[in-house]
User: Fold this.
Amino acid sequence: MLTEWYRNIEFAHPWVLGALLLLPVLIYEYIRRNNKQQASMLVTTTHFINKTQSLRISLRHVLFVLRCLAIICLVIALARPREKFTETRNEGEGIDIMLCFDISGSMTEKDFTPNRLEASKQVALNFVRNRPGDEIGIVIFSNLSFTLCPLTADHNAVLNQIQSIESGYLQDEGTAIGSGLATSVDRLRTDKAKSKIIILLTDGVDFGGTIPPDMALQMAKLYGIKVYTIGVGSEKEVDEVVDSPLGPVVQHKKLEFNEALLKKLADETGGQYFHATDNTALQKIYESINQLEKSKIEVTSYDRYTDKFMPLVIAALIYLLIEIVLRYTVFRKYP
Assistant:
């Protein structure tokens, strides 16, 4: 807890903390004077008596400790500790973006590191971090489509939702590109932003779903939404275990996706089609989209402070009060 407090605290007058360097001097002087006061002379007739100390003598240093604690609190309070809050204000014209992820079973193929879906998630996270001021949402699809995160300027929420994406989340298998695109369009159609785009990422051929891709394409054109499509998958063959009358058999197959459909979706909406064959290519694609779709946003950051010195002042006064009470009661000296 103390570490967390210190991480969020800064001092308005940090140079005042230099006064704490005088504390070792005070401690040294106290020890030196205390040793002088304890000077004694041995008497041969009393050396056999057991040495005993009363509670009052054992606790005689408490007053000095309380005084030191009070000084420490006062010095820190004079340095004026304050909690810093950084706020940002966006001014200008942002872009509304829907990230449309294919999460079908084939997205777990390992021709990307560690697999297609995890690689796609990582580059999407970096993309979101580089889009301050834009509202971003997430749609996922396999045989069904689902809005995982509606449009929002809260990028922390978007990042958390991207990290939570897993293959099989929607259970039904398939690659309903039309349904995924239509759901993304529906989330953008009523928005007032001048620029609206969808980034659709898939590795399969359209199969399943209730809305054909051509119908989803017409919806995107009607509402002036650009579609950037990314076909994910290398040209290499992968092994697939299938059942046969003789038992499980390993077959080689080449993973394909409907490149013509993805090109059509992009071309007719004013977007672009990209083919990602590995992690590096996928990263470069998102960087290209980031350059193509520039936001006219001016982000203004300003700091707000809340003073935190009052508890220290109160603590110092309590220490001093306890010291005074003890000095004139328990530790009172009589002439």
Remarks:
- The domain at 95-294 is CATH 3.40.50.410 (Rossmann fold).
